[in-house]
Amino acid sequence: MFWKSKAAVPLLCALFAVLLLAGLVWNGALTPAAQATVEVEDGDTAETATAVSSGTNEEQLRSRVFVENEVVDVRITIDPQDFEDMLEQASEEVMKTASVEYNGIKVDNIGIRTKGNLSLRSVVNMPDSNRYSFKLSLDEYMSSQHLFGVTKINLNNNFSDASSMREFMTYELAEELGLPVPGHSYVNVYVNGERYGTYLAVEQIGSAYLERYFGSSTGDLYKSEMSGAGGDLQWISDDADDYAALVKKSGGNSDDALIQMLDELNHGTDYESVLDVEAGLQYIALNVAANNTDSYIGQNKHNYYFYDKKGIFTILPWDYNLAFGQEGYSSLLIDEPTQGAVAERPLVHHLLEQPEYKEQYYTLLQQAIDKVLAADVFDARVDELYALIAEDVKQDPNAFYTFEQFQDGVEALKAVNASQVNIISEQLEGTRPSSGDGSGSGGGRNPDGMDGGMGMRNNAAAEGNAEDAGGFPGPAAGEGMPPDGAGRPGAGEQGAMDQQGEPGVQGQQGMQGMAPPGMQAGGGRTGFGGPAMENGGTAGSTAEALTAGAALLLLIGGCLMILFFRRNRL
What is the percentage of the chain residues whose pLDDT exceeds 70? Predict the structure, then answer.
């Protein structure tokens, strides 16, 4: 009989090895590039080549994925019914299964969902719009999948930015100042072969990003959310649970380093023992120079990450679609750039009260002007971006704005920048006050509980100086109306919201159920043709569990067969 033959043991072992190898390959454990291929044209022929690397590669990311001076195609294929369901349940951010061809690189079995908060719900309430932001999760079902290390990419819809350039330009400024910047580039998104819109692709801060800039991704990564306490970094207690706004995204189980950093920042003076002070100054300078109050310095105290590497915390920039005065503030006091009392933002307050650090901060502001924001430099770069994306924006079938409003938005961006550069320069020169009574630059409350922030902007507004108050007066944005055609809110109710959807600081009425200008009537949620895909949800996780279970059963069965055979021989 076979069981008693001398070939039984090696044959059983070989069979088990083949089945186990097949299971591992199916699960993607041994082939991280198995689901990502690129068609490389060579004359009249094409070959399939490996499209992902075993680690991060900044040069490949810049040349293949985040190509900053090109608009590349991102072609998503998804079951039409799944896509329809995703749009109908957009506020629930349901993950669906799809495939994507990203600038020629094809990745199957990925996750895709809508993303955002209040901005997402605002688009939900627009009867004729389905221009959502999307998140591509390449490793959602296949844990080894990535594009040159990157596993998640955000497709941002440029909500409330008629110019489509504010976030892009701010990341370029951040890079000039020396901050670690996520990969970003313009893309044309297609769904099942049909053009969907021109978006800004932004790398999600995660392992690949951390590996590139810090050489390791094992440290604690926190993100500040708008809800909960602690986003302002003020001391509450030594219990990490009291800092609900600081959400841990990755890392170990202990929050001791976070508590130590907060303690030293609020009660000590040796800031460099717990903080990357240079990065902190760069971050403050970035938000002041780009006039981005939808950040740590603003009323919502959010849109930043903190990464802890061996006890030293580095603040990381994030989310800049409301930069360049989009929230209505183009006159920040450079020594009190906060909305609310500067003492309520210890990262700003304690760093800028040190003469040495303040001098570094002033140098960074001047560097921002000289290298990026000076009118000749800034306008030339904006014109380059206009030439890059204008034709694509003009053909965008789901654009929030008309092409004429896009053009107006581009010119408004130049004008807002010129105004704030002038104001910052005068403060650096000492010809304009750079500080006030400690109440900040507008918004929030003073420590005594009174409305605060009667800084330069509000004083200017009271005096009727429209340029200093915000640069561009306009009609009040009525209830349900979007920002004006230039991509900025009117001088009345503030309707702007950030890319993740949080409301602006001066009002929360904007875009309540009304389509932005330029939205084509009838542009609702239509179906898209395409090959059927597996349903989303837990499909990938289930497949992995079944494969692992089958391999385990085969292992046990093989061992039992061998044991039975040997007992019979004995």
Answer: 66
User: What whole-number distance in Å separates Cα of residue 536 and Cα of residue 559?
Assistant: 36
Q: Is residue 16 part of a domain?
A: yes
Instruction: Indicate the range of 80-84, 352-356, 432-436, 439-443 predicted with least confidence.
Output: 439-443
The CB-side HSE value for 248 (13 A sphere, CA atoms) comes to 17
* Domain housing 554: 2-29+546-569
**Number of structural domains found in the chain:** 1
Each residue's pLDDT tens digit, 286-339:
999 999 999 999 988 899 999 999 999 999 999 998 999 766 555 799 999 999
Q: Is residue 22 part of a domain?
A: yes
Q: Is residue 562 part of a domain?
A: yes
Is residue 507 in some structural domain?
no
Tally Cβ neighbours within 10 Å of residue 203.
23
Q: Are 400 and 499 in contact (CB under 8 A)?
A: no
The whole-angstrom separation of Cα 85 and Cα 537 is 12
Alpha carbon distance 146, 33 (integer Å): 8
d(CA 137, CA 240): 29
Measured CA to CA, the distance from residue 25 to residue 76 in angstroms comes to 24
Residue range 245-256, pLDDT digits in tens:
999 999 999 999
Whole-structure pTM value: 0.75
Say whether pLDDT at 403 is over 70.
yes
**pLDDT, tens digit (0-9, with 9 covering 90-100), for 340-352:** 999 999 999 999 9
Q: How far is CA 124 from CA 83, 93, 133, 135, 500, in A?
A: 15, 12, 11, 17, 14
pLDDT band at 28 (very low <50, low <70, confident <90, very high): very low
d(CA 271, CA 286): 20
- H/E/C letters for each residue in 426-455? HHHHCCCCCCCCCCECCCCECCCCCECCCC
**CB-neighbour burial class of residue 31 (10 A; exposed 0-12, middle 13-18, buried 19+):** middle
Q: Kindly list the distances between the CA atom of residue 156 and the CA atoms of 215, 288, 314, 504, in Å, as whole numbers in the listed order.
A: 28, 23, 25, 18
CA distance 265 to 276: 12
